[in-house]
Amino acid sequence: SQITTLINHKDKPKRSDKTLQAIQRVGQAVNLAVARFVTVGETIANENHELKEEMSVACIEARRAGETIAQLTDVASLDHPESDSHITIFTDKTGVVKAARLLLSSVTKVLVLADRIVIKQIITSRNKVLATMEQLEKVSSFQEFVQIFSQFGNEMVEFAHLTGDRQNDLKDEKKKARMAASRAVLEKCTMMLLTASKTCLRHPDCESARINKDGVFHRMRLALEQVIEIVTDSRPNGENEMAPISIYSGIKEFKNKVEGLRENLYFLSKENLSTMLEVILEHTEDFTDSAYTSHEHREHILELSKQAKMELEQLVSVWMQAQNQKTKDLMEDLEVAILKTCQCMNELKREVHSAATSLAADLLKYHTDHMVLKALKITGVEGNLEAVAEYTCKLSEQKEQLVEMCRLLRHVSGTEPLEITCMHAEDTFQVTGPQIVSAAETLALHPSSKIAKENLEVFCEAWESQLSDMSMLLREINDVFEGRRGEKRVYLSLPRPGKHNANLKPLKPVKLDTEEQAKIAKLGLELHLLTSDVDSETEKWEDQENEIVQRGQGMSSMAYSMYLFTRGEGLLKTTQDLFHQAEIFATEGTKLASALHAVSDQVHDDDKPLLLLEAEKLISLCKQLQITAKASVQGKSATFAKVDACILKTRNVMTLLCQLLPLCCKLLRKNKAGSGCLKPAALWREDRIRAGPNAHAPERRAEMFGIKSLENHVTNMTFLESK
């Protein structure tokens, strides 16, 4: 942005001292930023000898270009720069353009090389994990297993840190969702691998125990492979990733093509449109052929499918006539045909959405008591093989229902990340079902085995956890469909101590009771409305990549998850989860205030005090929230008072954010449309540069999904007690 400012400055005959000083400040800022950037690049080069030469060359080029820009913008001391022998931006603008090109090119090279190093680190870490997994598969004694698993745990923690950073850096939401799914599998499977391996060591001749353990190892290897595919942007054997098209995305694309006929009658063929509709209607067969779709929904879907064909035929007829003769009447008929076709597709979308979500709601409600899992645990401990076989059949039926539910939900999920989450859920049910069966069979064969009982508990908890996540996913799908949350999602990578604590005996979650939820309901609702207001304000910004917009959206998502907590829903399961979330929210607010300070350097002097005043208010409110969230309390009433205070202070921050976002947007627009007077953007913050290439901010570590629980796998293992 600094360079763009320099290149686009207007060559005016009269240049004020203010303009000259501004140009010089921008040039110096560029040179200083480049110098710091290059220092980081050189440090990386010294630590990675295989890329040292390439990195060093790119760094030298970048430094040279930065110095050239600083020299060409050294104009503040010149009263008449054009008559001076000193070459400046005014006498040689092409020199600045050349230096800018060289700078951008060399900086890009440094970034690409640094990225290659990060990818190599992740691949190396994966290879270590795989090698240790092979050793774990072959061990034959508890003592050897303890030693190797301890090493494996440390390697998994390192891998989780590296992939967590990578997930945060990914711009593609689809890849980010796939990475989150793979990392979630690895986190849960680490605990499964522990208990399944211990069971196999205790009962080496048990076939069901071996099958159980092999299933965990296989799933972990697939997840590790998927992480590498995402990181390297490649697929095995060079094959392309072909995700199945959902009904929702198919209808969206079809409607775009149909509505495009208003602008251009010739940009696609009628065969193209017909084929698109055929594909959509083929996918509706997933609903009409499903044994779990109600008769009413099936009839409506078939009826709307038939109507869609008729509407398209009418549209094509009018469209072909309009191509030959553009009369007013024909164009009006075309508009009516377009509207009717789109309306029919909307009704079809609404019908399949209703069919999928009503089925999901019914199934989740029906299976919420986990009766089959409870029965398997009881009959397993009794050693009743016949009863275990009976309940495993019931679990298989339940699995088929839930898998079908995930497939239908994917069609109506509305966004690619949610589609991926549905596919991940489907895969989890497909794999976990048979693993529960093998664990139950092992327990039935060895009913007095504590480790076999513990192993079955772990797999049952994974099943229950996925069912719980499905309730949240269903709510998100409904929110997207009804336009409440747009394309945004609640953070799925939040720490969830109550749910993901990896101790062998997890703490019982502390939730708000019904009376407490009723007391806090009004405050929660206010918070919900404020998240909608903030989302609305961020959508008005032209630059969606702006740091203020992204942090505002992140804070809105966090506040939304806190609102869900007040209803006893969502990913924040315990009061401790809420307090931890409030701390992260406050930290994010402080970062947003820093971004506002940076923006204040770019706006006109008259507007600067107002923006700085609002930024200081935000910092003050965030500090208050942080103090409240960190305060230790004891007793039920004191805990509820702290919850109430955290929600109240979060609401205050969101209220201020609703005022700040439009103000900042307005000032930036005003500055952009103003006199063209240049102001330099803020310099890189000292602390980020000093951190160096391998440093990780503590708050990012804390926010990483599953890191703490993986570390707990290493520190809280108690293998020998099971002997």
Automatic annotation (TrEMBL):
Keywords: Cytoplasm
Gene3D superfamilies attached to this UniProt entry: Alpha-catenin/vinculin-like (1.20.120.230)
GO molecular function: actin filament binding
Domain of life according to the entry: Eukaryota
Gene Ontology cellular-component annotations: cytoplasm
A single GO BP: Rho protein signal transduction
Transmembrane region(s): none
Record has Manganese as a keyword: no
Coarse class of the protein's main subcellular location: cytoplasm
Family matches, as Pfam families: Vinculin
Location within or outside the cell: Cytoplasm
Family the entry assigns: Belongs to the vinculin/alpha-catenin family.
Protein name as annotated: Alpha-catulin
Organism whose genome encodes this protein: Rhynochetos jubatus
